[in-house]
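Quick one, C-alpha cells below:
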C-alpha cells in the first residue's frame, strides 16, 4: 500500500519531512548489528520508497536532494562500522559518488561539497587510521586521487599515509595506490614521497616504489628524482638494483648527453667498478647518437684494462662489455698485444667459463688463434 495517497496534504506536509529526518537519524546512529542486517536489495527499496513518499510534498530538485543526502549519510555510516564488509561497502559507495560527481551525474552535489563532506566525516582517517585494513586500503585509490586533485592532502595526512609503510601487508597496497595517482611533477605530494623514499630502508623498497618515481617523472625527466633510482641501483642491500637501473635509464633517455649523461659516466668511472657500473655505462652509451666518439673521448678501452678488469670479478660481464666497446667503436682499433695477455689472465683466473673468452676472441679478433698460440708459448 502506498501511504502517500491516504495522507491529507496538510498532514503530509508535516509528517513526510519529519519521517525523512527520522530515517536519516536512524541510519546515522543505528548500531552495527542492525545495519549489518540490511541487504543491498532492502537499501535500494528504501531509496525507492523515500523518493515516492517525497513526491507528495517536494519539488523534483527537493527529491534529488533528499535521495543524494541519504546516500551520503549511509555511506559515511558504513565506513565508520567495525565490520570489515560494511566498511568496504561504504568505501565503494563513496568512490561511486565521487565518480558520479566528477562526471556531473548528481543533481545537487558538487565536488567542493563532497570534499567538505569527506573532511567533516573524516573518511580518509577511517581508511588509514586505527581501523585500517588491507582490503579497505586497496580500494581507496579514487578517494585519494580526488583529494589530491582538490589539493586537499595536507602534511598531516601525508604523514599518516607514509606510516602505512611500516606495515608489510599495507606497504605494497599503498604504493600501488600512489602509482595510480597522476602526481604533477612539481607537486608538494610528489616531493614529500620522493624525499621519504630517498631515506627509506632499502629492504622495504618494492617494484611499485620504483614505479612511483618513474611514472611521476616520465613525461618530464627530473634528475633529482632520477638520482633516487640510481642510488637504489648501486646499493647492494637492495634486491631491486637491476629494476632500479632499468627505470633510471628509461627515465633519462630523453636527456641530452652533455652535460648530464657525460657527468654520470665520468663519475661512474671514478668509483670502484661493479657489474652495475658496466650496465650503467653500457646503458648510457646505447642512448648516445655518437657512441663511438664517446667511447674514444672517455678512453673506455684504457679504463677497461686499467680499472674494470682489476676491480670486477665477473668474467662474462667483462668480456661482454669489451665486446660491446669493440663492436661500437668506429675507429679501426686493434688491441695492443699487452691486452691479449690481460685477456689470457682473465681466462686463467676464471677456469669455470673458458668458453666465454674463446667465443669473444673468435668473433672480434681476426688473428685470435695466432695470438693465443703466441701467449701460450
Amino acid at each position: 500500500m502506498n501511504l502517500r495517497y491516504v495522507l491529507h496534504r496538510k498532514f503530509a506536509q508535516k509528517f513526510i519531512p519529519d519521517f525523512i529526518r527520522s530515517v536519516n537519524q536512524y541510519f546515522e546512529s543505528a548500531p552495527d548489528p542492525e545495519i549489518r542486517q540490511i541487504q543491498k536489495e532492502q537499501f535500494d527499496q528504501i531509496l525507492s520508497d523515500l523518493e515516492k513518499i517525497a513526491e507528495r510534498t517536494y519539488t523534483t530538485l527537493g527529491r534529488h536532494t533528499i535521495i543524494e543526502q541519504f546516500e551520503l549519510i549511509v555511506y559515511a555510516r558504513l565506513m565508520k562500522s567495525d565490520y570489515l564488509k560494511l566498511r568496504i561497502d561504504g568505501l565503494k559507495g563513496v568512490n561511486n559518488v565521487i565518480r558520479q560527481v566528477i562526471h556531473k551525474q548528481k543533481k545537487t552535489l558538487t565536488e567542493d561539497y563532497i570534499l567538505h563532506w569527506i573532511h567533516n566525516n573524516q573518511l580518509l582517517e577511517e581508511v588509514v587510521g586505527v581501523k585500517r585494513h588491507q582490503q579497505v586500503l586497496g580500494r581507496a585509490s579514487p578517494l585519494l586521487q580526488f583529494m589530491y586533485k582538490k589539493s586537499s592532502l595536507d602534511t598531516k595526512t601525508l604523514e599518516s599515509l607514509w606510516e602505512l609503510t611500516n606495515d608489510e601487508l599495507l606497504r605494497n597496497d599503498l604504493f600501488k595506490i600512489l602509482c595510480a595517482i597522476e602526481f604533477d611533477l612539481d607537486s608538494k605530494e610528489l616531493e614529500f614521497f620522493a624525499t621519504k623514499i630517498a631515506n627509506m630502508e632499502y629492504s622495504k623498497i618494492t617494484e611499485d616504489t620504483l614505479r612511483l618515481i618513474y611514472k611521476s617523472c616520465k613525461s618530464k625527466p627530473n634528475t633529482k628524482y632520477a638520482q633516487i633510482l640510481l642510488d637504489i641501483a648501486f646499493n647492494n642491500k637492495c634486491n631491486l638494483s637491476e629494476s632500479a637501473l632499468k627505470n633510471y635509464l628509461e627515465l633519462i633517455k630523453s636527456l641530452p648527453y652533455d652535460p648530464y649523461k657525460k657527468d654520470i659516466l665520468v663519475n661512474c668511472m671514478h668509483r670502484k667498478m661493479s657489474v652495475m657500473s658496466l650496465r650503467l655505462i653500457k646503458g648510457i652509451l646505447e642512448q648516445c647518437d655518437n657512441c663511438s666518439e664517446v667511447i674514444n673521448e672517455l678512453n673506455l678501452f684504457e679504463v677497461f684494462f686499467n680499472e674494470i678488469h682489476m676491480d670486477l670479478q665477473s668474467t662474462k660481464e667483462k668480456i661482454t662489455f669489451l665486446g660491446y666497446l669493440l663492436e661500437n667503436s668506429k675507429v679501426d682499433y686493434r688491441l695492443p698485444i699487452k691486452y691479449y695477455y690481460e685477456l689470457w689472465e682473465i681466462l686463467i683466473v676464471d677456469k669455470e667459463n673458458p668458453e666465454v673468452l674463446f667465443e669473444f676472441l673468435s668473433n672480434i679478433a681476426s688473428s685470435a688463434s695466432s695470438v693465443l698460440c703466441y701467449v701460450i708459448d
